[in-house]
Design goal:
Shape: globular
Number of domains: 1
CATH topology: 2-enoyl-CoA Hydratase, Chain A, domain 1
Radius of gyration: 18 Å
Helix content: 40-55%
CATH superfamily: 2-enoyl-CoA Hydratase, Chain A, domain 1
CATH architecture: Alpha-Beta Complex
Distance between the termini: 33 Å
Number of helices: 12
Largest sheet: 7 strands, mixed
Structural class: alpha/beta
Number of strands: 7
Length: 270
């Protein structure tokens, strides 16, 4: 195998690890890291979307607002959670929680794990693009610290809908990209079989994003992946969240917003 082929194969291995069916999901991390998590439901407009969960929780001596994308493990759970792909009401629920967090001055911890927002006709009819756009504005302007942790997959606008913040942390075997490899291959070459090539071109691994200056920290996982030791993965994630949240809480809010603004202005600058 050529060097290029070896790199592509290694990248695809990361994609498969990020999607491993036994990988810990958001609720596994929430129950291991936080205390007194109280889940809030509904967007106050249409309904409750189980692909996005959230509510206040205790992180040591502070209250935080947790917002996360949740996948399901059994067939019934996958149907309930829509495979972690949120509809507009999910993003509007997240928006409600962001505004509550700002009102009560709770830092936000966002946990990303989705291949993308749900692309169905109903989602389009109910304004999925508008719902995500509203969240981008709210997160960019929120006068509270925001730490984002990518647990497995971070796909496209579906991830960004809860993923804008002051720090981006990635689990060691997570991925984050403008599109998932299959979608990229279909768009560029009209050939999903070229997904491995697309994955390499997308530079979507945690190591890629750290090297490009987009991710602030890679959170180490147990040997072979987080699914091999949930406790060890959660301990590492919790330590990273505490460390970055403490550093953000020491920054004056006006400076925090300016640094957040500059952070996103720098993306793509050569």
């Amino acid at each position: 195998m050529t060097d290029n082929g070896s790199i592509a194969a290694a990248t695809w291995e990361q994609v498969e690890l990020a999607r491993h069916p036994d990988r810990p999901y958001a609720l596994d991390y929430i129950h291991a890291i936080f205390g007194n998590f109280f889940e809030l439901h509904g967007d106050r407009l249409f309904g409750d979307d189980h692909a996005i969960i959230g509510g206040p929780a205790a992180l040591d001596q502070r209250t935080v607002m947790v917002i996360a994308q949740q996948k399901g493990r059994t067939t019934a759970e996958r149907a309930l959670r829509n495979f972690g792909m949120a509809n507009p009401e999910g993003y509007r629920k997240a928006l409600r929680l962001i505004r509550q967090a700002e009102r009560f001055q709770f830092p936000v911890i966002a946990m990303v794990d989705t291949s993308g927002a749900f692309p169905g006709a109903g989602a389009e009819e109910r304004g999925i693009a508008w719902a995500i756009a509203e969240n981008l504005v709210a997160l960019a302007q929120a006068r509270i610290p925001i730490v984002t942790l990518v647990l497995g997959e971070g796909g496209s606008g579906g991830a960004l809908g809860i993923g804008v913040g002051d720090r981006l942390l990635m689990m060691e075997h997570s991925i984050y990209s403008v599109a998932m490899p299959e979608a990229c291959a279909s768009i560029l070459w009209r050939d999903i079989a070229r997904k491995v090539e697309a994955a390499q071109a997308l530079k979507l691994t945690a190591a890629d994003l750290k090297r490009m200056g987009l991710a602030d920290e890679i959170v180490p996982e147990p040997s072979g992946g987080a699914h091999n030791d949930y406790g060890m993965a959660a301990d590492a994630a919790g330590a990273a969240l505490r460390r970055h949240l403490a550093s953000l809480e020491a920054v004056a809010v006006d400076r925090l917003l300016e640094e957040r603004y500059q952070r996103y202005r720098r993306i793509g600058a050569s």
